[in-house]
Amino acid sequence: MPIPDSFLDELISRTDITEIVGGYVRLTKKSGNNMFGLCPFHSEKTPSFTVNSEKQIYHCFGCGKGGGAIGFIREIENLPFRDAVDVLARRAGMTVPEEEGQAELINRRKRLLDLNREAARHFLSMLKTPPGEVAREYLASRGISKAGVTKFGIGVATDNWSSLLDEMIIKGYAKQELFDAGLARPGKQGGGAYDFFRNRLMFPIIDIRGNVIGFSGRRLDAEKDYKYLNSPDTPVFTKSRNLFGLNLAKKTKAGFLILVEGNIDVVMLHQAGFDCAVAPLGTALTSEQSRLLAQYTGKIVVVFDSDEMGQKATLRALSILEKTGKEIKVVNLGKSGDPDEFIRKHGADAFKILLQRSDNQMEYRLLTIMGTCDMSTDEGRLSYLSSATNLLSEIKSEPEREIYGVNVAKAAGVSIEAVKNEVIKKLERKKGREKKDFEKETARPRIKLQPASRELRYTNDLSAVAEEGVVRLLVLDPILMRVASDMRFSKEEFTSDFLAKVFEIIERRLSGAREVSEALLLSELESNEASQLTVILQKPESLPHGERIIREYIEKIRAERLKQQNPDNDILLEIKRAKENK
Question: Which of 53, 131, 269, 323 has its CA 20 to 30 A from that of 423?
Fold first, then answer.
C-alpha cells in the first residue's frame, strides 16, 4: 500500500531539513534562509552546497543534486524511499502506516485532539487557583473581561514543572502522547519529563471545526524567555497554516476580516465588538495563511503595530496578501502603538472611524515611501518619484495607475504627464526584460537545456523550457492553475514525462485542497527527478505578471506541438504574425 499523502505531509511538516543535513554536513556560513557547507555528494574545497530552511530543500550548485529531507536521506544513506521515510518517521516520533495502520493513525489524531481539549480545561481551571493570581492580575491590567476569558478559553500554565503532565497521566494519557502533542518534553538523558508551557497565559488555538489543535502562551515574567511561545508543529497542528481567532471570526457578518499581530489584540477587538479579528500566531504572515483568509472574505484590513517593526511586517504581509486577489486595506494607528492600546485609550467608536478611513494597500505603500524621503528637498522628491513610479509600474490596471499617478504627481510637485511618462518607460523596460529573458531562456544551446539525468532528457528542448516555466509558476503561485484550467491545458500536452508527472501531482494536490510547496512535491519524486525540479525552481520568474507569462508558456508549448505535427502549417504563420503585431 502506498504511504498516504496525509502521512507524508505530516512527516515533512515535522521535519527540519537543517537538522537532518546538519547531522552529516557541517553547515556554518549563513545568508538569509540559506546555510552553506561542503557537498557530501562530490569532492569540493569551496562550499557550493546550500540548505534553505524556509523552503525545506537542499541544492548543490556544483554537482546539481537537490531535493527535500526524504531525498537527502535516500542519497546519503543509499536507501529506498520507504526506508528513508522510516528513518525520518522515527526521528519525528511517528510510525509509517501499514494497510491496517490507517485506523491507527486516525485514532492517534483523535487522542491528541482529546488530549489538547483536556489540557485547555486544565489551564482554564488553574486560572481560578492561588497560583493563577498573577495571570488574573495581568488579565485585569490589560482590560480583558471574564466574558473575554470564557469566549477564548484563556487559562494559565502555572510556574510548576509538571502540573499538566501529572494531571494528564492520571487521566490515562501516556508521556509519549504529551510529547507528540507538544505539551511536554523528555528530561535530559532520558530522565523524567516536564511541561512545555510554564508561567504563561495560555490561549487555546482552535481550528475552524472547533478542535483544540495547539496553544499559544504569553509570558507572565517581565523579560524572561520569549514573549510568545507556540506549540511546536504536531500531527494535528501546523503553525504556518492556522490563524488565531478564525474559528470565531469566520462567523462574522462584518463583510471583512481584520488581521492584527497578537492574540491579545484579537481578544480586545472581539471584546469591543469587532468579531472579525484574527492573528498569524506570532509569526510573519505565510502564503498558506493568506489563502486561508481569502477563503472566508473578499476584504482584508491589516492593522499591525505602528512601530518600525510593525511597518515592515505590514509591507511583507501586503506583498503576500495582494496575490489573493482580494481587496486589501491598511489602518495606520499613528502614535497609538497597537490595536489593543488604541481601543483602551480611545474606545471602539474611534477604532470604527479608523476602519472607515483605512487606506488601500497601494496608498499605504506610497505613504511609506514618502516617509523615507525628505520631501522638502529636490533630491528627496526625485527619490520619492523614482520609487513611487516603480511601484505604479507593478499595477496591472491602467485606470488604477492613472488615479495613483495623480497623487504621486501632486506629492512630488511635478506634472501628471511627467509621472505617466516615467511609469510608461518603466513598464516598457520591464516588458523588454521579461521578453528578453523569455527569448534567452527558450534559445539556449541544447546542452544547457537538458537535465543532468539521462533518464529525464527532453525530446523537444524549446517546448520543455516553457513546460518548466508552467511548473515553476504553479509552485510559486498555485492560484495560477485557474489560468491553465481556463485554457484547458492538460498533462497530455507535455513533451516531458517528468514534467507531466510534476504537473499531475500539483493538480491532484490542488483538487484535494492540499498544500503545494517545494518540500512536499519533492517528497513524491525519485532522487533524479527531485534534483531536476530543484534546479528548475531555482530559475527566476516574474510573479507580478504571472497570469500573462503562464499564458505565453502554454502558447509556446502548443506552437511547438503544431510545428512538430506539420512544420509548414499555416496556423503557425498566423500565430507568428499575431505575436509580431501584438
Answer: 323
CA–CA distances in Å: residue 73 to residues 14, 69, 266, 446: 15, 6, 42, 32
CB-count exposure of residue 370 (10 Å: 0-12, 13-18, 19+): middle
Which pLDDT belongs to residue 103? 62
pLDDT in tens, 444-492: 544 557 777 778 888 888 888 999 999 999 988 888 999 999 999 998 9
For residue 490, give the amino acid letter: S
CB neighbourhood size of 328 (10 A)? 22
Which three cell numbers, joined as nine digits, stand for 509? Answer: 494536490
H-only helix segments in 297-347: 308-321, 339-346
> Which three three-digit cell numbers place residue 208?
475552524
Under DSSP, the state recorded for 5 is: H
Q: Within the chain, which residues score under 70 in pLDDT?
A: 1-2, 29, 43-45, 78, 98-103, 105-106, 189-191, 222-225, 283, 437-448, 566-582
Rounded Cα distance between 510 and 532, Å, is 22
User: What are the distances in angstroms from CA 486 to CA 142, 481, 482, 554?
Assistant: 51, 9, 6, 11
Dihedral-angle region of residue 412 (phi above 0 means left; psi in -120 to 50 means alpha; beta otherwise): alpha
Supply the pLDDT for residue 45.
67
If DSSP codes are grouped into helix, strand and coil, which group holds residue 146?
helix
Total length of the chain: 582
